[in-house]
Design brief:
The protein has 290 residues and is α/β, with parallel strands linked by helices. The protein has a single domain, classed as TIM Barrel, CATH 3.20.20.140. It has eleven helices and nine strands. The chain is globular, with a radius of gyration of 18 Å.
């Protein structure tokens, strides 16, 4: 059985940005999960305007989780600009309320602000104090995109990991996972297919900072492994205690290729049953206190 560390759902539809699809209903997700052996999933609300025309609130995720407590686990979400749009905003008032309601972490953080923006660091500080792991999306640009901004090589993430050593950061998105190897072009939203001849920022930062964990969801997480299966086996072995299976299902037809990739790597002996089980579900159980 898998635990999905990253998925989105909604109970109510709203207007969509062009080319976007509606999130799945919880009932549809459960039906699909039963087919691919996903036992539970972390529901991530989206509250920043850069990401969607309409937000999916923490309250909506809590309602879904209360309806299906055996299948869904709630994360909360608080935009760094909430309450006062300032670096001293008492975000702990919101975060502690949601933690007490049962939320196990925060994310997906998608505000298009720099990692070192004082408002973002204020969010990090409160999450660290409350013991809430944080799932982030990295944007390769400031403006015209969603996600926290970092430069190539992820120096701002490096600084944040050092500044907040007790905050668990769950890395996610193309601009994060593309840096499992050195960048090949100016496009940081790409899915490179070349073998990994040299390691990039992600494995280096994971070695230097034990609070950096890896969310393997979406095409970005899958591609980071599938582009070089031999390297992927070594990567999964080395960081087996800090990697998490995920899907990032955002629409009814979102593919879930990581299911087959993980199983084939186990069945072919590229990773052990123990490594498979940690990434598939045991790490999530430990991180979230399930």
């Amino acid at each position: 059985m898998f635990i999905d560390i990253h998925v989105h759902a909604q109970r109510f539809s709203g207007p969509l940005r062009s080319n976007n699809r509606d999130f799945s209903s919880p009932e549809w997700l459960i039906e699909r999960y039963d087919k691919i052996d996903v036992d539970k999933a972390v529901l991530l609300p989206l509250v920043s305007p850069e990401c969607r025309y309409t937000i999916t609130t923490t309250e909506e995720m809590l309602d879904i989780c209360e309806r299906y407590p055996d299948r869904f686990i709630p994360f909360c979400n608080v935009d760094p600009r909430a309450i006062s749009d300032g670096p001293d905003a008492p975000l702990d008032k919101l975060l502690s309320y949601y933690r007490d309601r049962g939320c196990k972490g925060i994310g997906e953080v998608t505000a298009n602000l720099r990692f070192d923006d004082p408002r973002v660091e204020n969010l990090f500080r409160h999450c660290e104090a409350l013991g809430l792991p944080l799932t982030f999306h990295i944007s390769p640009t400031m403006g015209g995109n969603y996600g926290l901004y970092d430069d190539p090589g992820l120096p701002l993430l490096d600084n944040a990991l050092a500044k907040f050593p007790n905050l668990i950061f769950l890395g996610h998105s193309q601009a994060f996972w593309v840096e499992i190897a050195p960048l090949e072009s100016s496009s940081r939203n790409s899915y490179p297919k070349s073998p990994i001849a040299e390691e990039g920022a992600v494995p280096r930062l994971m070695r230097e900072h034990p609070n950096l964990h890896g969310d393997l969801s979406a095409g970005s997480g899958h591609n980071a492994l599938a582009r070089d299966i031999d390297y992927a086996a070594r990567f999964l072995e080395e960081f087996q205690d800090r990697l998490y299976f995920g899907t990032d299902i955002c629409a009814p037809d979102t593919p879930t290729p990581l299911v087959d990739l993980m199983r084939s790597m186990r069945d072919e002996g590229r990773i052990s049953e123990a490594v498979f089980n940690k990434i598939a579900h045991e790490n999530a159980v430990r991180l979230l206190g399930l």
